[in-house]
Amino acid sequence: MAEVHVTVWDDQVEDGAGTPALFVHNIFTWGDDPEYGFAGQRPLAADRRLLLMDRRGYGGSPDTARGDFEVDAGDVVALLGDGAHLVGHGNGGVAALLAAARRPDLVRSLALIQPSAFTAAADRPAVADLLHRVREGVPATPDDLTPGDFLRASTEGIGLPVPEPTPRRLRAVGTSMRERPIWEAEIPLEAIRSADVPVLVLCGTWEDAPTAYREHVGVPLMEVAESLTDSLGARLVRVPGYYPHTQRPAQVNAALRVFWDSPA
């Protein structure tokens, strides 16, 4: 197995204080990216070691011909060590779910930030509509579309600011363009539920998001969050905005601290 890059933050006064936490990022980003990644969670390193994994093709990890959530899940399992809290955002949330289903004994808790687990909520109306659109109505990405074009279309095209197209950002976007479609993921929720893994779901409220972004992405993600809360017996925390851990890092960090410190 190719080794993936991991950023380690460890500000603990005493060695061994607190169970470590492993973070798995979404598309277009990498572990410690201040734009879309987990830079805002840096203060949590005061209590425990934080491991920020770069999925293959992102950040400091090796290139990959095609990203795959199943491969990412294997990398996550390999990084759990003797046990860790697990946090996943977006597509990284799907990898975290799959890893937790494979080795629930190593997952001390599972926190999901707007996970792209659409197939686990396919019975919800907006999710069903999204799955129909992406499976039936969306053409394949043109071969001549550059990562820069894709980045602009995915941000400016729906009213969001365009991040600086640095080489690292464009590499991440290129990997995202080639990833295995997330709607192919089959997530064995029963393995997590039967193992009694504590689960926290964090989701934005989306009222201030650009209209197209809210309708086509936000509403389905909110339905996924509600569905996973029901099916996994999770705690649901709603956070103002549409990118919880970057727009409201203090609120997300407080929720994670309470969750990690609560009895199982």
Structural notes for this entry:
- It is a single chain.
- The chain is α/β, with parallel strands linked by helices.
- It has one domain: Alpha/Beta hydrolase fold, catalytic domain (Rossmann fold, 3-Layer(aba) Sandwich).
- Helix content is 39%, strand content 14%.
- The chain has nine helices and seven strands, in the order βββαβαβααααβαβαα.
- It has helices at 69-79, 91-102, 125-137, 147-155, 167-178, 189-194, 211-232, 244-247, 249-261, and strands at residues 6-9, 21-24, 50-53, 84-89, 107-113, 199-204, 235-239.
- Strands 1-3-2-4-5-6-7 form a seven-stranded mixed sheet, sandwiched between helices.
- α3 (125-137) crosses α7 and α4 packs across α5.
Could you give a short description of this structure?
The chain is an alpha/beta fold. It has helices spanning 69-79, 91-102, 125-137, 147-155, 167-178, 189-194, 211-232, 244-247, 249-261; strands at residues 6-9, 21-24, 50-53, 84-89, 107-113, 199-204, 235-239. Strands 1-3-2-4-5-6-7 form a 7-stranded mixed β-sheet, with helices on both faces.
